[in-house]
Amino acid sequence: MRVLALAFRVLVWAVLGLLVVVVTGAGLGVLVGPALLAPATSYSMEADPARVEAFEARLAATGRELLRNPDRTASLELEEADLNALLAAAAANLSAQGEVLVPWAVVSLLPGEVRLAGAVVLADSSVPRALRGRPIGLDVRLEPRVTGERLELTVLGLRLGRIPLPPGLVLGVAGRALPLPPELGLDWRRRQITLALPDLAPPDAGAEVRLTGLEVDRERLTVLVRLVVPD
Q1: How far apart are CA 219 and CA 114, in angstroms?
Q2: Domains: count for the chain
Q3: What's the whole-model pTM score?
Q4: Cβ-count burial of 36 within 10 angstroms (0-12 exposed, 13-18 middle, 19+ buried)?
Q5: How many CA atoms lie within 13 A of 68 on its CB side?
Q6: Burial code of 180-215, b = ≥16 C-beta within 10 A, e = fewer?
Q7: Residue numbers of the domain that contains 105
Q8: pLDDT tens column, 176-214
Q9: Which helix H or strand E contains 227, and what residues bound it?
Q10: Which of 9, 24, 150, 196 can bridge 90 by disulfide, Cβ–Cβ 3.0-4.6 Å?
Q11: Element (H, E) at 51
Q12: Distances (CA, A) of 197 to 4, 184, 209, 210
């Protein structure tokens, strides 16, 4: 759960960073006004500690399965509700830091596609006065893929409120303006956000657990992992 929560937290930070760059750098708030940037819909986001606890138990069971299987592979299925419980925790942590408030955020799963929608409230003085403290809608469609030891998220579509934006242009601006951590990359030509995948095993495990694949279906995400034991 810690690793998946971290991955989604990094993704939320990246997407919200894009939002800040677009709103403050491109001046959209001044050009179109807050009405067009407001969320097109709303969602009631609630913490679900029981679901998170159940997911942690399934994650532990997946670890035991890795040790039993001769081929050292295992899979873990997550429902939309599992991902939204993790996202709710990440959004709450982000809001608690005070720079960005996240009234709501939701993940939707479609065949081969992950959709992240939400509302954010920016209070920073660099945000245009017309937008300061007002909810701004964000809707991102992503195609995830694992390549080697990296998670690639191709941005299929990006909307700010009711305004569609070109993903490549936004990623290009964000890549030049944002201080990115070393594990995160933005490729505007390929419209991709890339995240280096960490070893999922504890430091003293004597082996590595690697994410080897993702399968996205309607309302369900399957995570494929492999245990690597050094020679």
Answers
A1: 10
A2: 1
A3: 0.79
A4: middle
A5: 8
A6: eeeebbbbbeebbbbbebeebbeeeeeeebbbbebe
A7: 2-228
A8: 766 777 777 888 889 988 877 765 555 555 677 788 888
A9: strand 220-228
A10: 9
A11: helix 49-68
A12: 10, 10, 10, 8
